[in-house]
């Protein structure tokens, strides 16, 4: 397995108390595989990704337990230098907002090229040629002419392509894309997502795609992990989850996607709000919002149960949920 996150716990020590942001996350990504991570705002998607990438703010963050196995090596046991090397060469991250991730005072060519001078010892001239090649590869028109331009001279979609180019530059084996298209216009979103998916296939990279958009996921992901209050509540191959969710929360998320054949009908919304992470409810964290909740849900934390060889659900009533489709 390329990446395996095991029972990861992350907390934030704040003035108001300890926010339990990640509470026993388990997920894995194989070479060439795309894992989509879904869940409402605050469910711990980004914090988990930052822990994998090694860029968590510590303090206030703290990884209190767990393992992050990358090519069978626990990243949490590595020393600073070894860790930095893996982060720089084997993994890359793409963020939502290219403008704040790119350096405004360096040309895009210099920023892409720097990866090759620093990590591959290339001359500046060769690195610039590499930058043009990569810009071509992510289909930035007139790459040769634009390589000397600055981030603000590009449109949002083009900047996102530049971030993708930088992420791919050293041919990492894992890419983490944290809502890579959220800030873009709808038409541009699809183009950027298609490009990312295409390059990922070509280079056989593992991809963790964090998104709110269940519509996008169906086209590009192999499997899905649904997060709620810092836990994975369901994992499944992508097509099975659309046919029949095994967790009421997933079911709620699926019902709240707008559908073309139901235009004009009021959109379903899961009632209530995600819990305050300083005070996660006992039992199943979803119980105050769950239409299927019973007494046991208010006292016992549901274990992540094996629904089939490839699916898991953390619900006491996963069987009933599957049957009730
Ligand atoms: N630097 C920080 N200091 C304190 N708490 C933090 C910090 N970063 C994250 N958290 C806590 O962790 C929780 C989970 O955050 P995370 O960014 O992982 O959510 P997310 O699932 O990525 O949400 P979104 O969809 O909004 O990006 C937050 O609600 C917050 O309580
Ligand atoms: S364990 Fe209970 S409250 Fe939680 S999702 Fe299942 S039915 Fe709902
Ligand atoms: Mg996030």
TrEMBL record:
> Does the keyword field hold Cell membrane?
yes
Identify its membrane topology class: Peripheral membrane protein
Q: Name one Pfam family in it.
A: ABC_tran
Tell me where in or outside the cell this protein is found. Answer: Cell membrane
Question: Keywords assigned by UniProt?
Answer: ATP-binding, Cell membrane, Membrane, Nucleotide-binding, Transport
Please give the biological process terms from Gene Ontology that the record holds: peptide transport
Principal localization?
membrane
Q: SUPFAM superfamilies, alphabetically?
A: P-loop containing nucleoside triphosphate hydrolases
| ABC transporter domain boundaries | 3-254
- GO cellular component terms, A-Z: plasma membrane
Q: Which family does it belong to?
A: Belongs to the ABC transporter superfamily.
**Record PANTHER family:** DIPEPTIDE TRANSPORT ATP-BINDING PROTEIN DPPD, OLIGOPEPTIDE TRANSPORT ATP-BINDING PROTEIN APPD
Protein name as it appears in the record: ABC transporter ATP-binding protein
């Amino acid at each position: 397995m390329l990446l395996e996150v095991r029972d990861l716990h992350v907390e934030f020590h704040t003035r108001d108390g300890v926010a339990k942001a990640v509470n026993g996350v388990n997920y894995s990504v194989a070479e060439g595989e795309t894992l989509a991570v879904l869940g409402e705002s605050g469910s711990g998607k980004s914090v988990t990704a930052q822990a994998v990438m090694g860029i968590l703010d510590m303090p206030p963050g703290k990884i209190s337990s767990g393992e992050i196995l990358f090519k069978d090596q626990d990243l949490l046991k590595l020393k600073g230098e070894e860790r930095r090397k893996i982060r720089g060469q084997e993994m890359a991250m793409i963020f939502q907002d290219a403008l704040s991730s790119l350096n405004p005072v360096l040309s895009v060519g210099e920023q892409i090229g720097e990866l090759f001078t620093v990590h591959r010892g290339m001359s500046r001239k060769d690195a610039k040629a590499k930058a043009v090649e990569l810009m071509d590869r992510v289909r930035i028109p007139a790459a040769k002419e634009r390589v000397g331009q600055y981030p603000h001279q590009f449109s949002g979609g083009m900047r996102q392509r530049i971030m993708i180019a930088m992420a791919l530059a050293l041919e990492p084996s894992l890419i983490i894309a944290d809502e890579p298209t959220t800030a873009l216009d709808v038409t541009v979103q699809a183009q950027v997502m298609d490009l990312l998916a295409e390059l990922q296939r070509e280079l056989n990279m593992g991809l963790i795609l964090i998104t709110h958009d269940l519509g996008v996921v169906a086209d590009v992901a192999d499997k899905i992990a649904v997060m709620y209050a810092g836990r994975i509540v369901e994992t499944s191959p992508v097509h099975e989850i659309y046919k029949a969710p095994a967790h009421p929360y997933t079911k709620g998320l699926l019902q709240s996607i707008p559908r073309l054949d139901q235009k004009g009908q009021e959109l379903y919304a899961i009632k209530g709000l995600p819990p305050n992470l300083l005070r996660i409810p006992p039992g199943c964290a979803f119980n105050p919002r769950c239409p299927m909740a019973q007494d046991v849900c208010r006292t016992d934390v549901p274990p992540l149960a094996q629904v089939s060889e490839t699916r898991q659900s953390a619900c006491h009533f996963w069987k009933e949920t599957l049957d009730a489709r």
